[in-house]
Amino acid sequence: xxxxxxxxxxxxxxxxALAMEPQVLLLxxxxxxxxxxxxxxxxxxxxxxxxxxxxxxxxxEHDMGVVMDISDRVVVLDYGKKIGDGTPDEVRNNxxxxxxxxxxxx
Length: 106
Prior knowledge:
Elements: H1 6-18, E1 24-28, H2 36-53, E2 56-60, H3 64-70, E3 74-78, E4 81-86, H4 88-92, H5 95-101
Parallel strand pairs: 1-2
Antiparallel strand pairs: 3-4
Helix pairs in contact: 1-2
């Protein structure tokens, strides 16, 4: 029996979870190990699930481009402490988030 390509396998896993008709779906690093095209496909899939089924999706992801592109609300943790909470634009401009993740100039 052959193996599915990595990105396709992740979508199959997500489909299996959706078969349970959850109200909330927790996705932990769903983009890990994917190339750009696979990430774009997964983003569209996640947005479609939210639109079509009304499923609330909690996404834990380190690819900030993905997070900012597909999220309505972003919460940022730094060593377990919440340092940012709001829209992607609000979080992107939050000084605590910038300091923790981008550093400050000296």
